[in-house]
């Protein structure tokens, strides 16, 4: 009985600490959503809400860097995520997948420039997760995973005109990541989970975040034009697949300097096959 109680206590403490670490990893995303929420409460202003959110996003990025939450390399990585997100938004808005109905000066082809910050927030989460949870990988097939991630990103852009191969590519991704384990530290304990499971979990929380964002008017799906309704659960799968792009880029960002330094003392920062 004592062992059961001790084990339960350890589990609860680990779970609470893991939740706290995840909250710290999501700090930028939470701050971005808080800005969106506050913007909906503002009285009418001479500046468009989307333009204000762009300024807020830039200031948020500067503050994160000044506070040491993100170093220069990480800021550069977040900027890449922002650009990839803007390209994604430009295509999706063009084909009518969703829209940004409010006016703004900083709109290009119907997409406000602040839209990329939502993808940048995901990139920031990736950076802070690697650092705060001391992530490492074993059995990671860098080349095949990266190629499939790029193909998935391209498929999400082109499936409006070409055959949709997301399920085929998703199945190949499961094969490529089979045997790949993600290790992470919570307190003094080291844990692991299958990499594919981590994609699924992150995709689920991004789907929840998308529901919050659309409720706050960050963008609008066609089904939400007459009033907000929950985002389709199918978007969970889409996010779980799309997150592989950001993960693959982040992994490359980590592998290159690690290989230049050589093996570190203790466990390697990233083990690949």
From TrEMBL:
Keyword Transmembrane (UniProt): yes
Protein name as catalogued: DUF817 domain-containing protein
Originating species: Streptomyces chiangmaiensis
The entry's keywords: Membrane, Transmembrane, Transmembrane helix
Superkingdom in the source lineage: Bacteria
InterPro entries documented for this protein: DUF817 (IPR008535)
Record's keyword annotation contains tRNA processing: no
Ranges annotated as spanning the membrane: 21-42, 48-68, 75-91, 111-130, 142-161, 167-184, 196-216, 236-253
């Amino acid at each position: 009985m004592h062992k059961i109680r001790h084990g339960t206590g350890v589990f609860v403490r680990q779970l609470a600490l893991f939740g706290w670490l995840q909250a710290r990893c999501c700090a930028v995303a939470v701050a971005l959503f808080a800005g969106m929420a506050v913007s909906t409460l503002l009285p009418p202003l001479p500046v468009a809400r989307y333009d204000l959110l762009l300024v807020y996003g830039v200031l948020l990025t500067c503050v994160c860097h000044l506070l040491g939450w993100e170093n220069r390399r990480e800021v550069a990585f977040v900027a890449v995520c922002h650009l990839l997100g803007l390209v994604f938004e430009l295509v999706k808005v063009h084909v009518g997948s969703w829209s940004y109905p409010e006016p703004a000066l900083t709109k290009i082809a119907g997409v406000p420039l602040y839209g990329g910050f939502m993808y940048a927030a995901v990139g920031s989460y990736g950076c802070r997760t690697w650092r705060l949870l001391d992530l490492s990988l074993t059995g990671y097939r860098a080349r095949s995973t990266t190629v499939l991630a790029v193909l998935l990103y391209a498929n999400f852009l082109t499936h409006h005109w070409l055959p949709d191969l997301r399920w085929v590519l998703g199945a190949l991704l499961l094969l490529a990541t089979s045997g790949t384990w993600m290790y992470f530290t919570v307190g003094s304990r080291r844990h692991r989970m299958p990499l594919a499971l981590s994609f699924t979990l992150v995709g689920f929380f991004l789907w929840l975040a998308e529901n919050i964002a659309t409720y706050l008017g960050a963008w609008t799906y066609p089904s939400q034009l007459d009033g907000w309704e929950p985002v389709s659960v199918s978007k969970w799968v889409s996010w779980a697949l799309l997150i592989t792009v950001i993960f693959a880029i982040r992994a490359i960002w980590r592998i290159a300097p690690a290989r230049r330094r050589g093996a570190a003392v203790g466990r390697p920062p990233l083990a690949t096959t």
